[in-house]
Design goal:
Helix content: 25-40%
Number of domains: 1
Radius of gyration: 24 Å
Strand order of the largest sheet: 3-2-1-5-4
Largest sheet: 5 strands, antiparallel
Distance between the termini: 46 Å
Length: about 120
Amino acid sequence: MKKWILLVAPLSVLMVLGILTGFVAQPGTDNGRYLVLRVYENFSVTSSKIIVNYPDSTFEVIPLEPFKYNDEYLVRNGRTLARTLNMLSDKGYRIVTSIADGKPTSNRSMMITTIIMSSHP
């Protein structure tokens, strides 16, 4: 009986440790990364744009058309945003959350929309 306990106890500890280490991120593995996408809609002189900050510290600036109070502007820039989100979705990113802030009623203000995306499986 004592030999059996001496054999089973270490094996049980190793088994539990093996299970627990499966939940710990290992160096060099990608257990999901975050991307930050910001849409800057400027209602004054500066151009509107989308800035995508990738997890590897690279970034991409996607120009948007200058702001105009008409449907064509909204549709064209909406298409650019949809294409960008679809491209990121095709790369495996999914939206985690988003927030918008600004003063869209003033002609000298800016609306900033931040979208956090994750590559978690």
